[in-house]
Design brief:
Blueprint lengths: L1 H45 L5 E2 L6 E2 L19 H17 L4 E2 L2 H7 L6 E4 L4 E6 L5 E6 L5 H14 L10 E7 L2 E7 L6 H6 L8 H21 L4 E2 L8 E3 L5 E3 L6 E2 L18 H6 L4 H17 L7 H12 L19 H14 L10 H63 L1
Parallel strand pairs: 3-7
Antiparallel strand pairs: 1-2, 4-5, 5-6, 6-8, 7-8, 9-12, 10-11
Helix pairs in contact: 6-8, 6-11, 8-10, 10-11
């Protein structure tokens, strides 16, 4: 009887231990599954798989034949399409409201844009309108084209990212509208338009060399903030002249974050996104984008500022031919934009071109970081200011020397005049005697 009781106790104990172990395993499995689900949802929200842009005017086409759905944006079952769409819309609405960006009503924007008649531009996303808000503030309203499925992802990406990105060299997102089946983004109005319009448009005077270098530094600072200042860091993926906007004082800001991605562990993209002419060759071949992909695009932009030539019109082939005679360091004068009329500093030109050539190195690891680019361009401007200060000091010294010589000559004439008067007086006194 005792043996039976002991066996029963042991059996119950073993059962309890096994039950506890199974409960613990089930708990941890549930936790792991929940975390993976959250990561998957986050990745699918951030991974804006958007079209490649074929020119600076922002027209769109897809480089790859693969479908719109990607590995990091899971497809939805057809049977649950209605419920899934509703849940997806609800989730996106919550994300937008949590972004911290103000939401405007369709009616307010309709009034501010004079019923959407003040058109100032047209891009891949859709039309852009100039608007004056009830507060008197002038803004730019970018409207999503109704037939643009890609643009909807771009819309959510910009709101989510720009809700936390704030820098003087990034275009500020003021608000958004998601109402009546329309999606609109409201930005600070950049009165001088895009850098591309100044390089290639006939309405503007050619940009001076000094201003081009300052614009390059502004852009470098904006992208450096994305790479090193933002947490987590952001890869822009579409640095180009038409995405650089200029304010009233010609200060440059980086715009259009529709293709941007947070710098996550998985940088592999099933489709190549970006703009032809600015795309990193290593990114095209490996389908892996990194911060150095932005550096390559920035290098192309530097050459664009130097040469005044569109990357879609053989800019980099032109650069490679020139590089054969320059060794990548000096002798870049032959590619300079003729609109400059020879008004540039040779040393600055070669320094900027040498930096640009490092940025477009075929091996991404050999390219400088954006922080390095900021330091080099800052040093170039610092040396310019030093030279200008020296010239001013020498000019001032020369003016002072001229004044002193004039004063000395005036005093000399006065002394001679006094001597003549004294001699005349002496002769007159002698005659009287």
């Amino acid at each position: 009887m005792k043996a039976l009781s002991s066996g029963l106790i042991i059996g119950v104990s073993i059962g309890v231990v096994i039950g506890v172990l199974l409960a613990i395993c089930a708990f941890f499995c549930f936790r792991i599954h929940s975390k993976r689900s959250q990561i998957g949802n986050s990745s699918s929200r951030r991974a804006a798989t958007l079209p490649i842009r074929t020119n600076g005017a922002d027209s769109c086409t897809v480089l790859s034949d693969s479908s719109f759905g990607t590995a990091d944006s899971p497809k939805i079952s057809v049977n649950n399409n209605g419920m899934s769409s509703w849940l997806g819309g609800l989730k996106k609405a919550n994300v937008l409201s949590a972004s911290g960006i103000l939401e405007y009503s369709y009616k307010d924007l309709q009034k501010a844009t004079c019923n959407f008649t003040a058109l100032i531009g047209q891009g891949a996303f859709g039309p852009v309108y100039k608007a004056q808000m009830s507060t008197g503030e002038v803004v730019a309203v970018k409207m999503l084209a109704t037939d643009s499925k890609q643009g909807e992802k771009e819309f959510h990406t910009e709101v989510i990212l720009l809700g936390r990105l704030h820098h003087r060299n990034l275009v500020n997102l003021i608000g958004y509208c998601a109402e009546k089946g329309q999606h609109m983004l409201i930005y600070v109005y950049m009165s001088k338009g895009s850098l591309a319009s100044h390089l290639y448009g006939e309405k503007h005077e050619p940009l001076s060399w000094n201003l081009r270098v300052q614009i390059a530094l502004d852009v470098a600072r904006g992208v450096e903030y994305l790479h090193d200042g933002a947490v987590p860091s952001v890869i822009h993926r579409d640095i180009k002249s038409s995405n650089i906007l200029l304010d009233q004082s010609m200060g440059a800001r980086v715009a259009d974050f529709g293709l941007s991605r947070e710098d996550m562990i998985n940088r592999h993209a099933s489709n190549v996104r970006g703009t032809f002419g600015y795309l990193d060759p290593e990114y095209i071949s490996s389908r892996t984008f990194t911060k150095k992909s932005d550096v390559y695009s920035f290098g192309v932009l530097l050459f664009e500022l130097i040469a005044g030539r569109n990357p879609q019109q053989g800019l980099m082939e032109y650069v490679e031919l020139a590089a054969m005679n320059t060794d990548g360091k000096v002798g870049w004068e032959e590619i300079v934009d003729p609109n400059l009329g020879g008004k540039f500093d040779d040393q600055e030109l070669n320094d900027v071109a040498a930096l640009a050539y490092k940025c477009v190195n075929a091996v991404s690891k050999k390219r400088p970081s954006m922080r390095d680019n900021v330091q080099v361009l800052s040093r170039i401007l610092k040396h310019r200011h030093g030279r200008n200060h020296l010239k001013h000091s020498l000019s001032t010294a020369a003016d002072e020397l001229t004044i002193n010589m004039d004063q000395l000559e005036s005093r000399s004439k006065l002394t001679q005049h006094q001597r003549d008067e004294s001699m005349d007086s002496s002769i007159a006194d002698s005659c009287e005697l």
